[in-house]
Design goal:
alpha/beta; 8-stranded mixed beta sheet; binds pyridoxal-5'-phosphate
């Protein structure tokens, strides 16, 4: 099948036609002509101060707690390298973002998955693990429009989780790159808003402006902030100020708000198309999540499938799928992640029809 006819449900990337290239060119031009002495020089490891100031004000924390990095994944890696020793227990949702599993395994963590329900983690499972004598160092979660399922954690579960974190003394890492991309309904309190002292919140401009900019951030608990920033300095001196200054300029000009509205309008239509296509072609073949935002729908097949066989069969009908097992600590043979933002409604419809042929 020629490459251009292949429909790819693999990577969760933004639609390239949304990249605000001309506006970013204006930002680049302005920051280079007005701030070159600062942005082309070495800087502090925590990142470009004006952007940190915006995030600190939004989050209601002291500037010292805000750190920028080359994407949020890298910041999580710093935290893991600092806090997690080989053998330490780390909790994640099951399934979770595949790169986080790779990063935790690389650090030698004992990664324990907590079953995910449509409205967030199972507390029966979590409490069983906590009562079993396991002392997790941290719990990594994506409460809003989770990767890979699109699920949203219910408010009551968010509060209960923070109570358990206090009681059992583990750090909660809330990854929130999709939180601003809600297409319907209203926001729930973030874990950080519930307990700003015991939550390390990660987020990023990758899904809101462009991943190629590589601008992510962490709001760190006070006790570890200076150590994480020192760790970053010892690793790369400082992240790119040029990119951060561009993102800052984009926000200062008021362009982020209007850009977000455009993204939400476009992506909401694509999510609708996926829901309609799944209803039409996949009813009876499995179950799927019904997210109200983000990038992903999670599809669970009725029976376990051989993932290698499924991916090969998919290629034959011009469909590219990720290996569902990559999102699980163990298992995952019955899972397919369906990212929808970078596909047109016609591609989504055709992709789902091809998927249906496989079952
Ligand atoms: C949950 C989650 N966290 C982090 C990232 C990576 O973000 P960044 O580009 O800021 O490193 C992704 C990218 O897909 C993601 O889905």
């Amino acid at each position: 099948m020629p490459e251009k006819n292949i429909i790819s449900f693999t990577r969760g990337v933004p639609a390239p036609e949304t990249f605000p290239a001309e506006k970013l060119a204006v930002c680049a031009q302005e920051v280079l002509s007005q701030e070159s002495g600062q942005i082309l020089q070495y800087g502090q490891a925590a990142g470009y101060k004006p952007l940190r100031e915006i995030i600190a004000a939004q989050s209601g924390v002291a500037l010292e707690r805000v750190m920028l990095g080359q994407g949020s994944l890298q910041l999580f890696d710093h935290v893991v390298r600092m806090l997690v020793k080989p053998g330490d227990a780390v909790l994640v949702e099951l399934p979770t973002y595949d790169r986080i599993l790779t990063l935790l395994r690389r650090a030698g963590a004992n990664v324990i998955g907590i079953d995910l329900e449509e409205d967030g983690i199972s507390f029966i499972h979590l409490e069983k693990i906590l009562h079993s004598g396991i002392h997790p160092v941290l719990f990594y979660l994506i409460p809003d429009f989770q990767n890979p399922t699109g699920s949203v954690m219910a408010a009551v579960k968010r509060r209960r989780l923070m109570e358990l974190a206090d009681q059992y003394g583990f750090l909660v890492v809330e990854d929130a790159p999709y939180r601003a991309l809600r297409y319907s309904g209203s926001d729930l309190p973030s874990l950080f808003e519930i307990n700003p002292h015991n939550v390390l919140q990660l987020s990023s401009f990758s899904k809101l402006i462009s991943p190629g900019l590589r601008v992510g951030y962490a709001v760190l608990p006070q006790e570890i902030a200076s150590r994480v920033i020192q760790f970053a300095e010892d690793t790369y001196i400082n992240p790119s100020y040029f990119n951060q200054a561009m993102a800052h300029r984009f926000i200062q000009k008021g362009w982020l708000q209007s850009h977000l509205l455009e993204l939400k309008q476009l992506y909401a239509k694509r999510l609708d198309s996926l829901m309609i296509a799944l209803d039409a072609a996949m009813t009876g073949k499995g179950t799927w999540t019904h997210p109200s935002g983000g990038f992903f729908v999670g599809f669970f097949t009725k029976q376990s499938v051989d993932s290698d066989h499924l991916m090969k069969a998919a290629e034959k009908v011009g469909l590219r799928l990720s290996d569902g097992r990559g999102f699980f600590v163990q298992g995952g043979q019955n899972f397919i992640r369906l990212p929808f933002c970078a596909l047109t409604p016609a591609e989504i419809e055709s992709g789902v029809r091809r998927l249906a042929e496989l079952f």
